[in-house]
Specification:
This protein is mostly helical and about 210 residues long. It has a domain of about 140 residues. The protein has six helices and three strands; from the N terminus they run αααββαααβ. The N terminus is likely disordered. Heme C (HEC) binds next to helix 3 and helix 4.
Amino acid sequence: MTRLRLTLLQSRLLSLLPCALLLSACSNTFNPLKDYEQLTPSTILESPEPAAQTNYPADRVAKGKYLTGLLGCGSCHTNGALVGLPRQDQLLAGSSTGIAYSNPMQEPNPGIVYPSNLTPDMATGIGSWSIAQIVTMVQAGIDNHGSRTLPVMPWPSYANINDEDANSIAMYLKSLPPVRHQVPQNVSPGQKAVAPFVHFGVYQSR
Ligand code: HEC
């Protein structure tokens, strides 16, 4: 009986051998990580100083600066921050590195969004956004055209910010010295990326 079991087990293992060989052969030719590099997530960002002249009360602007730092807006919205090399002259002025929101391990051309320029530059930033529009984006992820933004911009995590705090953030952003920096156009899944991107972990439940 014991002998028979062993034989069965052995034959099972033997039958798995071709699969194992095939898998290792495949992994030699397809390594989804080969185009990626490990990042050093060591970025600690200062929030930039507001301009000397602003239209908003100093205490609200100061609170907005504190909250913006606390909530880590700059860790996405600063050029270079996503790859551990934040550009001090582009703090909160948008990222030329995008964030992939479909899985680049499975498809060569994932969808990508580029964190926007949050300084009040008219051409490339949020200079034309009202305080109320910025508040709606932070609390509900709805942009100035009324479209819902993908939660890559982590508005679900900010939904419970109270109105006073959300307004303070908006007043601070509108008080920043404008920085001209055009972020790349977002890329739909299947389109070829025009600029580099990072990808956060993926999830599969089974
Ligand atoms: C995990 C990365 C990440 C963090 C953290 C983050 N954002 Fe964003 N945010 C994005 C991305 C990506 C977009 C662009 C979304 C798009 O184009 O669909 C965006 C868009 C925006 C926009 C719209 C601007 C425009 O011109 O379209 C505003 C305003 C904004 N974020 C404010 C904030 C504020 C304020 C914080 C902190 C409280 C913050 N974001 C934190 C990723 C982030």
